[in-house]
Amino acid sequence: MTLSSEDIAAAVDRLAEAIRANTADAPIALIGIRRRGDEVAQRVLTRLAEDDRELNFGILDISLYRDDFEHLHENPKLLESDIPFPIEGAHVILVDDVLFTGRTIRAALDALSDYGRPARVELAVLVDRGHRELPIQPDYTGITLSTRRCDHVLVCLEKTDGLEQIRVIVKDPS
Q1: DSSP string, 87-136
Q2: Residue 7 reports pLDDT greater than 60
């Protein structure tokens, strides 16, 4: 199964509309999780920018907070976080591309706590594919996919990958 750039744009629109409806004109801080969550967050921010409200944008690198760090590449590429506003007391919306087991979000919450104590943290994801290992659920979802645990969901975004699509790669469970 492959979803197109139009499907991705519609999902980003759904995220922006749901955030707009739930937060009214209150100030919010969108923080995208590196790699691809930051691009999704930037797109949502662009759609919310027409609102008359305070919007902050940041990028969070969670590489050193992951519990599977040793299973990543031999030489993982560590990137900087960029959160140029105070987290203390802010309404933060963490943004990621795919929500699967919940471990990435757990790592993001750990990383975020190093910046301060937000008043509230919500989660927006482009794709929710289920199969949680931790009790983490999104507040805002662009697309919900029904997958098997062994399947792989590959999100490709123009700025990051030079291609715009979401593919479900069906794997043999054996």
Answers
A1: -TT-EEEEEEEEESSSHHHHHHHHHHHTT---SEEEEEEEEE----SSS-
A2: yes
